[in-house]
Design a protein that fits this description.
The structure is a single chain. With about 160 residues, the protein is mostly helical. It has one domain. Helices cover about 75% and strands about 0% of the residues. It has seven helices and no strands. Helix 1 crosses helix 2, helix 1 packs antiparallel against helix 4 and helix 1 packs parallel to helix 7. The chain starts with a helix and ends with a helix. The relative contact order is 0.21.
């Protein structure tokens, strides 16, 4: 799943937990549940052996998705902390956004061919868990599902 839907979903979960401490483990686990929903992402149908994940359009699309997810997270943080004068609620939302994306961040040493990945059995096992959690769909179906989930989460956050 793309980072942006994970961010929206994580913040919506965090909003309903009302606690960054409760949101953290729930959003971390929710990441894997969301990855079981049929989806499409920039690395769908690719292997990391040839380095194609870090080259060309896939890399730039990933960076754009990362930037959008980060912007959305900061928007809701700013909205909560400064416009609604609710710093605790804003931190809770940011916690949800962070922990809902943490599993993908933990996979980045594998994607970017970092030496730490080769040295860590934990990261190797975690990456395999991430791979097995994916349910891929055709691009139009997978993107549509993610847009619906993001929109629903945004409505919950703004409502």
């Amino acid at each position: 799943m793309l980072l942006t839907p994970h961010t929206f979903i994580g913040m919506a979960i965090a909003h309903f937990t009302g606690s960054p401490i409760l949101a953290a483990p729930i959003c971390f686990v929710a990441h894997f549940v969301c990855d079981k929903i049929p989806h499409w992402d920039f690395f769908s149908g690719t292997e990391n052996d040839d380095g194609s994940r870090t080259k060309g359009w896939r890399f730039f699309a990933f960076v754009a998705d990362f930037g959008l997810a980060l912007s959305i997270g900061w928007f809701f943080f700013y909205r909560g902390a400064f416009l609604q004068n609710d710093l605790f609620g804003a931190i809770t939302l940011l916690s949800g956004a962070f922990f809902s994306n943490l599993p993908d961040a933990m996979e980045s040493p594998y994607i970017f061919h970092m030496d730490i990945y080769k040295k860590s059995k934990f990261l190797e096992k975690f990456t395999n868990l991430q791979k097995n959690a994916q349910t891929q769909a055709q691009p139009i179906i997978g993107i549509t599902i993610q847009l619906i989930l993001s929109l629903f989460s945004a409505i919950l956050l703004l409502g």
